Structure formats: C-alpha cells, structure tokens
Amino acid sequence: MINKKVESVLNAQINKEFYSAYLYLAMSAFFDQSGLYGFAHWTKVQAREEVEHGMIIFDYIIDRNGTVDLQQINVPEKNFENPLQVFNKIYEHEKSVTESIECVASMSEEECDLATRNFINWYIAEQVEEESNVMDVISKLKMFEDNKAALYLFDKELMQREYKSHSYNK
Q1: Average pLDDT over residues 88-112
Q2: How far apart are CA 112 and CA 109, in angstroms?
Q3: Are 84 and 142 in contact (CB under 8 A)?
Q4: Residue 104, SS3?
Q5: How far is Cα 10 from Cα 21, in angstroms, rounded to an integer?
C-alpha cells in the first residue's frame, strides 16, 4: 500500500503532467498557425510524452493499491510571439516540472516509501534529458537570430523527431 502523503504528491504530479500536455498542444497550435510545422510536430510529440508520463504515475498508484484522484487541469497559456520565446517558456516550465519531481523524491524519502523513491528515479533522469533537449533548441534559435533560411531548415529538422513510448515496468 502506498503512503498517503506520497499518493497525494503523485496525484498532483499526474495533474502537472497532463497540464504539460495541454501547454505543449497550445504551443503546437501556435506553430501550426505560424506555418512552422516541424516545431508543431516537436511539441505534439512532447504532448504525447507528457500524457504518457502521467499515465505511468496513474498505473503506479493503482499497482500500489492507492487511489487516483484526478483534478481539474488548468487552461494553458496560448499567446505566443516567436519560436525563441516559446522555447524559453518551455525551458522555464520544464524546470518547474523538475522541481516538482524532486519534491516527490524528497517526500518519498521522508516517508520511507523506498518503492516510490526508486520509481521516481526514472523521472529525474527524464527531466535532465528534457531540459537539455530544450536548451539545445534555444541555443540554435539564438544562433540563427533572424535568419529565416536557417529557421526553415531547423523546422525541417524538428519534423524528424520520433515519438518513443515509455512504460512502467512492474
């Protein structure tokens, strides 16, 4: 049986993962409407990953004989200016998700729920990768500045991103 305090923070994390998916979909719509279909694709793939991250936690709570308590998902921001601004927002958002995951890890340790502490390690590593990937995009966008040809080619590159499914291994 899962610790109730840990169960509560995991339920909050499910909400954050689903909110992240909404946010990425809002960003994807902006990119689609801007004609940046590679950027739109990248953010759609990211949205799918976020839903999957939430579902992995969902399944984990069930497997630990806990109770999933889904909460209302906030409306994401939807006013964006340009790709660099969007990716700066993504980076700030991912840093907040990292902080939240680290709080789950800390709470798990405090409550001596070592199964959850072990479970959450994958998320910690995933967040390092998420932040790094976003910083790579930001670095390139800063390098391109207003070079539309470079942005066009980078948009084509982002279209190549493939969705990789993850699962909770029991």
Answers
A1: 97
A2: 5
A3: yes
A4: helix
A5: 17
Q: How far is CA 51 from the centre of its chain?
A: 8
Measured in whole angstroms, the distance separating CA 22 from the mean position of its chain's CA atoms is 10
Confidence of residue 169 (pLDDT cuts 50, 70, 90): low
Q: Which residues contact 107 (CB under 8 A, 6 or more apart)?
A: 5, 6, 9
Q: Per CATH, the architecture of 4-158 is what? A: Up-down Bundle (1.20)
Q: Is the pTM of this model over 0.85?
A: yes
> Average per-residue pLDDT in the chain?
95
Amino acid identity for residue 60 in this structure: Y
User: Degrees (nearest 5) of the Cα angle 2, 49, 55?
Assistant: 30
User: Is the distance from CB of 51 to CB of 21 less than 8 angstroms?
Assistant: yes
119-127 — which CB contacts under 8 Å span 24+ positions?
119/60, 119/168, 122/166, 123/53, 124/98, 126/53, 127/94, 127/97, 127/98, 127/101
